[in-house]
Amino acid sequence: MMPLHYPRYTKKDYQDMPEWKLDKLLAQYGLPSLGDLAYKREFAMGAFLWPDFVEVSHHSPKSSLFETVDGFSLIKKKI
């Protein structure tokens, strides 16, 4: 059975994660675990981590959870 939530690992966690743990994690989500260790780490980070977004200007007195990138409204998330 596939887990209900994304794993809560950081980029550093994925970079240090042993191969057996990556294989198990990918299998839990029904994802392939093909390739070498470096490829598996990159694949897991691409699948489970949100990309870093450019911060909006700090000149605005309002703090927003959203940001516009290329015309799309996105939720800010730091990793």
From TrEMBL:
Q: Which InterPro entries match?
A: DUF7722
Residue ranges constituting the DUF7722 domain according to the UniProt record: 6-51
User: Which domain of life does the UniProt lineage start with?
Assistant: Eukaryota
**Annotated Pfam families:** DUF7722
Q: What is this protein called?
A: DUF7722 domain-containing protein
